[in-house]
């Protein structure tokens, strides 16, 4: 049996209309899963789901838009998935926001709350929504996309980094709480990945050159670099892995770099 097979599984991937989330969703389909494509924009979700279904030759992707800032919207999304495909076996919390660049002294309370509500509280909500069904099924897998920013300080994205550190602790805590029900929860901490979300970190040629020099592998990561780890963490191949954070940064942290 293929340890990395996701055949017969239903996976929900937030923030999957582009970037890392889309790469994970596509990899899950390639591994045999059916995937829920979700972001704030229904049209964008439809386009990705249609592309996946056209490529896979079947009804493998379902588009359900929902804002991670609304608990009600997330509950409605989970309900829609249950009605269409049944219980969710795999949850990937990839969607996040960072509305502020600058020192912590300048961030507004509203911006700080938005970072934590979208990047931490929404993940808590989603885990709480899907875990009862996973427990009844005898287990499941949850993956939270964090960041290597959660390991370092920053004078420009401090609140974001703090939220990503909180995500790693959320993973550790839920691993303890949910492990007895067969539910595994882990995090992935990417470095700089070539996505629209991280564009400000590499769009200047000089900045990209500096990032390459700081990375032992000598390049910025691509969304596909994250997808393989996400398949591993959702599959039987990681059957005894929980509460962990896998760093995927091309070696930046081992050289002492950060964001």
Characterization of this structure:
There is one protein chain. The protein has seven helices and seven strands; from the N terminus they run E-H-E-H-E-H-E-H-E-H-E-H-H-E. A seven-stranded parallel beta sheet has the order 3-2-1-4-5-6-7, with helices on both faces. The termini are far apart. Helices cover 44% and strands 14% of the residues. With 259 residues, it is of the alpha/beta class. Helix 1 crosses helix 7 and helix 3 runs parallel beside helix 4.
Element order, helices and strands? Answer: EHEHEHEHEHEHHE
Average pLDDT score: 94
Q: Which outline best applies?
A: globular
Give the number of DSSP strands: 7
CATH fold title: Rossmann fold
The neighbouring-strand order within the major sheet is: 3-2-1-4-5-6-7
**Structural Rg:** 18 Å
Q: What is the CATH architecture term?
A: 3-Layer(aba) Sandwich
CATH superfamily: NAD(P)-binding Rossmann-like Domain
Poorly predicted runs of 5 or more residues: none
Give helix % range: 40-55%
What's the main sheet like? 7 strands, parallel
- N-to-C terminal Cα separation, in Å? 40 Å
List the domain count as a whole number.
1
Strand content: 5-15%
Q: Strand pairing plus helix content: what structural class?
A: alpha/beta
Helix run count: 7
CATH class: Alpha Beta
Organism: Sphingopyxis macrogoltabida (Sphingomonas macrogoltabidus)
Family: Belongs to the short-chain dehydrogenases/reductases (SDR) family.
Pfam families: adh_short_C2
Protein name: Short-chain dehydrogenase
């Amino acid at each position: 049996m293929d340890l990395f097979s996701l055949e017969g599984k239903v996976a929900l991937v937030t923030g999957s209309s582009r970037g890392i989330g889309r790469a994970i969703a596509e990899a899950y389909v390639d591994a045999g899963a059916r995937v829920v494509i979700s972001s704030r924009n229904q049209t964008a979700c439809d386009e990705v789901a249609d592309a996946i279904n056209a490529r896979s030759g079947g009804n493998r992707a379902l588009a359900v838009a929902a804002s991670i800032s609304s608990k009600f919207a997330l509950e409605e999304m989970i309900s829609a998935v249950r009605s269409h495909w049944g219980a969710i076996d795999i949850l990937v919390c990839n969607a996040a926001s960072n509305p502020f660049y600058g020192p912590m002294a300048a961030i507004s309370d509203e911006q700080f709350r938005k970072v934590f509500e979208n990047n931490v509280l929404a993940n808590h909500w989603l885990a709480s929504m899907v875990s009862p069904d996973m427990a009844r099924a005898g287990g499941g897998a949850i993956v939270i996309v964090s960041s290597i920013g959660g390991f370092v300080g920053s004078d420009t994205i401090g609140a974001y980094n703090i939220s990503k550190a909180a995500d790693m602790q959320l993973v550790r805590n839920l691993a303890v709480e949910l492990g007895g029900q067969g539910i595994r929860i882990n995090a992935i901490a990417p470095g700089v990945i070539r996505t629209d979300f991280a564009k400000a970190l590499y769009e200047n040629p000089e900045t990209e050159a500096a990032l390459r020099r700081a990375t032992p592998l000598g390049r910025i990561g691509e969304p596909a670099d994250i997808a393989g780890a996400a398949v591993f963490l959702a599959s039987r191949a990681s059957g005894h892995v929980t509460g962990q954070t896998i760093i995927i940064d091309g070696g930046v942290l081992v050289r002492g770099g950060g964001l």
